[in-house]
Design goal:
The chain is mainly alpha-helical and about 120 residues long. The chain has one domain: Fumarate reductase/succinate dehydrogenase, transmembrane subunit (3 helical TM bundles of succinate and fumarate reductases, Up-down Bundle). The chain is built from four helices and no strands. The longest helix has 30 residues. The radius of gyration is 19 Å and the shape is elongated. The N and C termini lie far apart (about 60 Å).
Length: about 120
């Protein structure tokens, strides 16, 4: 008997619903925050030591790589918080119907992007 299951899945061709993309984004941002928050806390603590340390940390913001990293971390935090609230509300059956779930997923994605663009505008 031959199986009808596909032997190879091309993940690029599969179109996932917006809710699935939001959920995957929630997981990815959790990983980014697990890496980025300790580094950010260390830099904050170092900047509070004295004026020279503050100048060192703020001097890092001259580099595009650091600015980009900050924008990505701001996006990660915004998306993770918004998606977390969305998932929490769905546990209480708030926004569970399909149309509302799609709308809230779009709001999470666009809200996180909006906060990141705002952060990019502030840093530039």
């Amino acid at each position: 008997m031959r199986s009808t299951r596909p032997a190879f899945l091309n993940l690029v061709q599969i179109q996932m619903p917006v809710g699935a993309l939001t959920s995957i984004g929630h997981r990815v941002t959790g990983i980014l925050l697990a890496v980025g928050v300790p580094i950010s806390v260390y830099l904050l603590a170092h900047s509070l030591e004295d004026e020279q340390a503050f100048a060192e940390v703020t001097g890092l913001l001259r580099y595009w790589v650091v600015k980009g990293t900050v924008v990505v971390l701001v996006w990660a935090l915004a998306h993770h918080v918004l998606a977390g609230v969305r998932h929490l509300l769905s546990d209480f059956n708030v926004g569970s119907p399909l149309l509302r779930a799609r709308r809230s997923a779009w709001l999470v994605n666009l809200g996180g992007l909006g906060v990141a663009l705002f952060a990019a505008g502030v840093l530039l």
